[in-house]
Model the fold of this input.
Amino acid sequence: MRIGTWGQGRVAVAALLVAVAIASPALAHEVTYQGTVLEVQTGRIHVKTIDAKTRKEENVWFNVDKTTKVKRGDKTVPFAGAAITAGERIVVIVDHDAETKMLAKEVRLAAK
Done:
């Protein structure tokens, strides 16, 4: 069976659409911040980080909501039950495409 030029073009377009549909969730603009906890409040965490490009210290507030995944070691825990303390090392993953500014998608802490 022979596929003409138009047929090949349609197949290529269809393949491209499928590839885009599969890759779309992976296109989220996630950024990982590492630092030290300065303060913890209900619904947010204040962290001292070092900007990877400029090497300057920044103090950043991260918002936390019910969708934020909090891991203490290998265990997933609720934000309130994580017992986060000032001076503790932390990793925060933020999706910069999210509607809420600086909303933590995931928080990672060392096991206690």
In short: The mean pLDDT is 85. The two ends are 65 Å apart (CA to CA).
